[in-house]
C-alpha cells in the first residue's frame, strides 16, 4: 500500500511523513508540495534529510498512479477541490482539513466562509473519530479526519451524552491549544513575543469547530445540543487540553460517570482513563496518539467536569489519520503508532 501526502511541508504533513516512514505496512509513494516542488525534503526539513525524497508538484495522473491512499494535510478549500478527482479514480482519501466534516454545504459556508466541497462527497464522507465511527471508517472511501479540538472534546463528552448522564444544554467547552495547532504559516499572532508568556482566547462564538462539535453531540444524544466553545492559545509547541462543563442529570454520581467511561473505552488502545482523583496533563501524551481522560462529578454544584488531553498533531491530526488508515486497511489499529509519548 502506497500513500501520498499532499501539503508535505506543513506541520500535519511532516507529522504524517514521520509516522508513515516508520509504519510496518505502509510506504510513502510521493510527497506533494505546492510551495517547494523540486526541492529535496531535507532542504525544507533538515531533521528529515536522510529521507531521500524530492517534493513533487500536484500532478493528478502521477499521484493516482503511485498512490493507493491520498492524505490531504492542506488548509480548508484544497481537498474540497481536489479530493473528488482522486475518489473518482478509486483512491481512498483521508482529509485532515474541515472540508468534509460537516455534511452540509450551507453550514460549511457559514463557519468556514468559503466555497464548500461538492455536496455528494460531503454527504458520503465518514467522520473519522476512530473510537466512535471505526465500523464506518473500515468501509469508507473518503474519511474526514476530525478537528483537533473536536477530537479531544467529543471523546470526553459523547459517552455522557449517549447514556443521558448530562443535560445537553448548556455545554461549556473551554480548551487550550499549543501553537502548532495553527499550522506553520507565518502570522504576527504566532510570533515568539506574541505567544511566549501569554495566554489568550480567540474566535469566541465564531470558531469553525462549533458546528462539528454540535453535529456529533446531537447525533449521539439524539437531542439538539448547543455548545459554548472558547479556545485559547498557550505557549507550547504541541498539546490540547479541553475542559467540558455540563450539568449532571438528577441522581448521577461519580460512579455512574466512571462506569460509563469504562464501558466505552475499556478496550480502546488509545483512550486512557485516569484513576479517580487524577487528571490529565498534556505532557503525558506528547508525541503520541493517546487521549488521556479524567473527570470530576461535583455534587455541590451538580456539575460534571470532563478533562481530555491529546497531542494536536497526533491524535488531533496525523496520528488519528494513520489510525483511520489502519482501520480502513484491516491492519492492527495501533500499527505505526505504538511509540511511548515523549518525556520529559
Ligand atoms: N495543526 C494541527 O494541529 C491540526 C491541523 N488540522 C488541519 O490539517 C490541515 C493542515 O494543517 P497544518 O499542517 O497545521 O497546516 P500548515 O499551515 O502547517 O500546512 C498546510 C500546508 O498545506 C499546503 N498548502 C497551503 N496552501 C495551499 C494551497 N493553496 N494549495 C495546496 N496546498 C497548500 C502547504 O504545504 P506545501 O507548500 O508543501 O503544499 C502548507 O504547508 C489544515 O486543514 C488544518 O486545519 C487538523 C487538526 C489539527
Ligand atoms: C491553535 C489554532 O489556531 N488552532 C486552529 C485549529 C485548526 C484546525 O484544526 O482547523 P480545521 O477545522 O480547518 O481543521 C484553530 O483554532 O483554528
Question: How would you describe this protein?
Answer:
With 344 residues, this protein is α/β, with parallel strands linked by helices. The chain folds into two domains: 2-124, NAD(P)-binding Rossmann-like Domain (Rossmann fold, 3-Layer(aba) Sandwich); 149-312, Dihydrodipicolinate Reductase, domain 2 (2-Layer Sandwich). The chain is 33% helix and 21% strand. The protein is built from twelve helices and 13 strands. It has helices spanning 11-21, 41-44, 60-66, 78-88, 105-112, 119-124, 130-137, 148-162, 192-195, 210-221, 254-265, 314-329; strands at residues 2-6, 27-32, 69-72, 92-95, 126-127, 142-144, 166-177, 200-201, 227-233, 240-248, 271-273, 291-298, 303-310. α1 (11-21) packs across α12 and α8 runs parallel beside α10 (210-221). It is globular. The model has no long low-confidence stretch (mean pLDDT 98). Bound molecules: NADPH dihydro-nicotinamide-adenine-dinucleotide phosphate (NDP) and N-acetyl-L-glutamyl 5-phosphate (X2W). The site of NADPH dihydro-nicotinamide-adenine-dinucleotide phosphate (NDP) has 29 residues, from α1 and α12.
Amino acid at each position: 500500500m502506497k500513500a501520498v501526502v499532499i501539503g508535505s511541508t506543513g506541520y500535519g504533513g511532516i507529522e504524517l511523513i514521520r509516522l508513515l516512514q516508520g509504519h510496518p505496512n505502509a510506504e510513502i509513494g510521493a510527497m506533494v508540495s505546492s510551495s517547494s516542488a523540486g526541492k529535496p525534503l531535507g532542504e525544507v526539513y533538515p531533521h528529515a534529510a536522510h529521507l531521500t525524497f524530492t517534493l513533487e508538484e500536484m500532478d493528478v495522473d502521477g499521484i493516482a498512479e503511485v498512490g493507493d491512499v491520498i492524505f490531504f494535510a492542506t488548509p480548508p478549500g484544497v481537498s474540497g477541490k481536489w479530493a473528488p478527482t482522486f475518489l473518482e479514480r478509486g483512491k481512498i482519501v483521508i482529509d485532515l482539513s474541515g472540508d468534509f466534516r460537516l455534511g452540509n454545504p450551507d453550514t460549511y459556508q457559514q463557519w468556514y466562509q468559503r466555497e464548500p466541497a461538492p455536496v455528494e462527497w460531503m454527504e458520503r464522507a465518514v467522520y473519522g473519530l476512530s473510537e466512535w465511527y471505526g465500523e464506518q471508517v473500515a468501509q469508507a472511501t473518503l474519511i474526514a479526519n476530525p478537528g483537533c479540538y473536536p477530537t479531544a472534546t467529543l471523546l470526553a463528552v459523547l459517552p455522557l451524552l449517549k447514556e443521558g448522564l448530562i443535560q445537553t444544554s448548556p455545554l461549556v467547552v473551554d480548551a487550550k491549544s499549543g501553537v502548532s495547532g495553527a499550522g506553520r504559516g507565518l502570522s504576527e499572532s504566532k510570533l515568539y513575543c506574541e505567544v511566549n508568556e501569554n495566554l489568550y482566547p480567540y474566535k469566541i462564538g465564531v470558531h469553525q469547530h462549533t458546528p462539528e462539535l454540535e453535529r456529533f453531540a446531537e447525533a449521539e444524544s439524539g437531542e439538539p445540543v448547543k455548545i459554548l466553545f472558547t479556545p485559547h492559545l498557550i505557549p507550547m509547541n504541541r498539546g490540547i487540553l479541553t475542559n467540558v462543563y455540563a450539568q449532571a442529570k438528577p441522581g448521577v454520581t461519580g460512579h455512574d460517570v466512571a462506569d460509563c467511561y469504562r464501558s466505552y473505552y475499556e478496550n480502546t488502545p488509545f483512550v486512557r482513563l485516569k484513576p479517580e482523583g487524577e487528571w490529565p496533563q498534556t505532557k503525558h501524551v506528547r508525541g503520541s496518539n493517546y487521549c488521556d481522560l479524567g473527570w470530576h462529578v461535583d455534587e455541590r454544584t451538580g456539575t460534571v467536569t470532563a478533562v481530555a488531553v491529546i497531542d494536536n498533531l497526533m491524535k488531533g491530526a496525523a496520528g488519528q489519520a494513520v489510525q483511520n488508515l489502519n482501520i480502513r486497511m484491516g491492519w492492527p489499529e495501533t500499527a505505526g503508532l505504538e511509540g511511548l509519548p515523549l518525556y520529559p
